[in-house]
Specification:
Strands 2-3-15-14-9-8-5-6-7 form a nine-stranded mixed sheet, with helices on both faces. The chain has a four-stranded parallel sheet with strand order 11-12-10-13, sandwiched between helices. It is an alpha/beta fold and about 425 residues long. The protein folds into two domains: about 240 residues, Rossmann fold (3-Layer(aba) Sandwich); about 160 residues, Rossmann fold. The chain is built from 13 helices and 15 strands. The two termini are about 40 Å apart. It is elongated. Helix 2 packs across helix 11, helix 4 packs across helix 5 and helix 6 crosses helix 7.
Length: about 425
């Protein structure tokens, strides 16, 4: 979506520079494979600076809000947004909305934080978000009322699928009222489950920290006779962190992801497979031990989760797969072998660390392109990353689905080959 009026040329600090602009006609193919189906799947608008801008930099006010769970790189994004708006476009009024969408609601009493280059100068060294965050829906009408009251004409929403749904709802309310307010989404989730975006910022940092945790967990398992360590990682409905971590750690013996149901009992159930692996190592003169990596959303069917309990955001409150597996494994091995089982859950630590260098660069590109898109009058969009390019993705498309691992794809096949666990263990593979 593009706001209808074009204000002026983008020449603020670039008049004497050889600067290349991006045309709205420049497209990034959705699928680069050569086939009739691929050609029909369409393309994305390429992100980047436009020659024409919509907003008057001397008058416009911008708002930045961070929503949902914490993630490495949030402060990097905030910093870049402020720096680009201020230095490259001359925007002088930038409001930080504190505590997520709650910050728009007067009854919560959260103060608005003024953001300047000086106030954000060193925030990229910090984990978390200087604006703080919150979960759960808020009244969309009150949010738009607040935008009008503060005269905010550009709203940057940094968040995951729930936050982006909220951003789209805000846009729809803006449209109903006939207001000239642009809304731009920036994908944030360590679950990496946002569609039309090859990766979200923070995922790589969280995944690299998870790898460190698994290496330590393997040492713990190996240090005990019949040691078994269960590492529970984040991933409600998508197992990208668990799968990538397991692929990077050849010591992982089993990985469980939400996309594929697994069997607990039976010839190819997890318990029997674990027993056979321990016995085989013993027979071969190797130290019997095992490392199991699981995403948090795994095995809800086995635990009888009806989905009735929900959190503040309306998500199903999941039961603890780590505790469940520990009890089941202990019960199964009670009269078989003296297993020593431990649970490690690093999730809330890995998501609160500062971004690593690669993620820091990625955050910069996302925020930079978000500013360019916003100043050009783009709205109801998310900055995506596809086929090596940053793109504009309509929020309407983003909120329709979640990105998940294909159980029949090459990536999952590679994970299974790395761990050596049998495909027969999984119900739908």
């Amino acid at each position: 979506m593009l706001l209808s009026r074009i204000f002026e040329n983008f020449r603020f600090f670039l008049e004497n520079q050889d600067f290349q602009f991006v045309s709205d006609d420049t497209r990034i193919l959705y699928n680069v494979e050569e086939s009739d189906a691929a050609r029909k799947e369409g393309s994305f608008e390429k992100a980047g600076p436009r020659e024409k801008v919509y907003f008057d930099h001397s008058k416009v006010r911008a708002g930045i809000v961070t929503c949902g769970g914490l993630c490495p790189g949030i402060n990097n994004v905030i910093r870049t947004l402020v720096m680009q708006l201020h230095h490259n476009y001359g925007v002088r009024h930038i409001h930080g909305i504190r505590y997520g969408f709650q910050g728009f609601i007067p009854s919560y009493g959260h103060e608005i934080k003024e953001l300047t280059p000086e106030s954000v100068q060193n925030i990229h060294y910090l984990g978390g978000s200087i604006l703080s965050s919150s979960r759960g829906p808020q009244d969309i009408g009150e949010i738009v009322d607040c935008l009008e009251r503060l005269d905010i004409r550009m709203l940057f929403c940094i968040g995951g699928d729930g936050s982006l749904r909220g951003a789209h709802a805000i846009y729809e309310e803006i449209q109903k009222r006939g207001l000239k307010i642009a809304v731009m989404g920036i994908p944030k989730t360590i679950d990496n489950d946002i569609p039309y975006c090859e990766k979200a910022f923070g995922f790589e940092t969280a995944f690299s920290k998870a790898v460190e945790a698994v290496f330590s967990a393997h040492s713990e398992a190996y240090g005990n006779n019949y040691g078994i360590v269960i590492i529970k990682l984040m991933g409600r409905d998508s197992g990208f962190i668990a799968a990538n971590t397991s692929l990077a750690c050849p010591d992982v013996n089993f990985v469980l992801i939400p996309e594929v149901q697994f069997s607990l009992e039976g010839k190819f159930g997890l318990l029997r497979c674990l027993e056979r692996m321990m016995k085989d190592k013993k027979v071969q003169g190797r130290h019997p031990h095992s490392v199991i990596v699981t995403a948090e959303g795994v095995g809800q069917d086995l635990m009888g989760n009806t989905g009735e309990e929900r959190d503040a955001s309306g998500n199903v409150r999941y039961k603890d797969i780590g505790i469940f597996l520990k009890k089941e494994i202990e019960s199964y091995f009670r009269n078989k072998m003296p297993v020593n089982i431990k649970i490690i859950e690093p999730s809330y630590l890995i998501r609160s660390v500062p971004a690593n260098p690669h993620d820091s660069i990625f955050c910069y590109h996302l925020a930079d392109n978000a500013v360019h898109a916003m100043m050009a009058g783009k709205t109801d969009m998310m900055i995506g990353y596809w086929n090596g390019h940053f793109t504009h993705v309509p929020l309407e498309a983003v909120v329709r689905e979640k990105k998940r691992i294909d159980p029949r794809g090459d990536f999952w096949r590679q994970v299974l080959f790395s761990t050596g666990q049998p495909r027969e263990m999984f119900v739908h593979s």
